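Title: Request for sanity check on Stringent starvation protein B prediction

Description:
We are preparing a figure and want to confirm that the structure record we downloaded matches what your pipeline produces today. Could someone re-run it with the sequence below and paste the raw structure tokens into this thread? We only need the token string, no images.
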Amino acid sequence: MDMENMTPRRPYLLRAFYDWLVDNDLTPHLVVDATLPGVKVPMEFVSDGQIILNIAPMAVGNLELSNEAVSFSARFSGRPHSVIVPMYAVLAIYARENGAGTMFEPEATYDTDSAIYDDEQALEGESTDDVVAPTVSPFAVVTEAAEGDEPDDEPPRPRGRPSLRVVK
């Protein structure tokens, strides 16, 4: 089978890096292009068109890393939200503690407008009305938050864009 007919590798790499980070007791964060169609995130936390999401098991509920999208429920500044990130909007995954992770290379499947439209249509068919927020109240966003929004036991978060170290 030639490369053009293969399924995209991003969902598989995302799941592998997620498992690797969690298995090593690190906190996985997603870098998301929030400007793309189909992205459902709390827009008040978007900065420069991007949002960084903490997808650690303790920070989210109902996490699903499917071939089409990353979806979960979480609390942002104490308010429950249902989050949907189509796979084409995931730019990187990395560990908050040390930056280990990867940026995803562009893939032809995600570069065409028709692929985005097809994925968006598939996502629209899914109902998120019955998504229940986790009972714990961790913070799912690692962007600048209002004072008092951060748990006291976490170290201060670095300012600016995250630096990623590509692991091959």
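Thanks, this matches our download. The radius of gyration is 16 Å.
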